[in-house]
Amino acid sequence: MYLNFAWRYFKAKKSANAINIIAWVTTGVIAFATCCQILVLSVYNGFEGLVKSLYTSFYSDLKIEPATGKTFFLSPEKINQLSALSQLKGISFIAEEKALLQNGEFQSVIQLKGVDENFITVSGVPQKITKGSFNLGNAEQPLMVVGSGVQNAAGIMLSNKFGEEKMAVISPKSNVTDNDPLQSLSEGIISPAGVFSVQQEFDNAYAITNIDFVKQQTGLGKNQYTAAEIKLKNENDAEAAKQAVEKVLGTGFVVKNRYQQNANLYNTMATEKWVIYAVLTLILIIAAFNMLSALTMLVLEKKHDISILQSMGASSLQIKKIFLSEGLLLGSIGTFIGVFTASVICYLQVTFKFIKIGGASFLIDYFPVKFLAMDYIIVVSTAMLIVLISSWAPAAKASRQSLELK
To answer: Which domain holds residue 373?
Structure first.
């Protein structure tokens, strides 16, 4: 019944044309705001998924780090217990240290990461090789794969025409008590075998080689590591697997999931998303003022109708519901138009990728889009809540009107 009254009031021609104009402007602003919210959030989801996929290639499902210091010792018995866990697909032990890479006149500070043979199973980096091959050699004949940024900084050619490139790696030794600074450094000769490209942060910093060479350079012991990276059979079991690994290791270790390994990135992306959402919500609040004006003018125009309804026995609550329904009707029409328009645009973008990103420096040349049902629920709920609040005052005013029949 209430929606029937609201629909009649919405369609009926008003005595003052301004009421019609304000009502349609209100509907249009709500449609525009909800459309922008869905579009921006969907595009943001697309970029978020793209960035996370890049980081996923480098960060493992779980990572073991020492609770204090830079290294930890892990006995073969503990390693066997970890390998026996049903949730684990593979575990790779890491020896990592900062080093100086020298190639003739070129030099670059790098993060030298030594990995074992299980690294191919655990990490996505081997699938990101753009030149050469993922070959790490051994302690006697070490090879490395470097990030594309390191390749440029160190002037690495990676060409067999001029023979295998030889370059020096200077790294600090661990557990050195000699006061002579030269005794605390080691120098090794290494050759590049390939170049990977994951994400600029990693490409500009990392060179990956075999763990035996890094241990030899840094003086780490047989069972001494800086980290261990774990691949899970099912990523959804991360929390249960994390607890199982912690139980096996005991104290002295920190086990991090993928979120904890890069908490700053995930927190920043989530914060940016909801800041954008809050800014776009301001447009809806502006529309609320238009709705307040439109409904207030409608209440003044329908004073006679209200009196007739009162004389027929309508209660104050029923009259309030009629004008609340009018506001919700306006909001619903605007929200539906906005959500529908945004969905069509997003679908066309997913299908045809017609909206391009300017420049050619990014990984893709179009705006990525990803639909999330929760975004639709939040946008629609926010719009209807604002509409309900803005409709309350005019509806309350109508319900308090005294009976006047002339």
So the answer is: 2-55+265-399
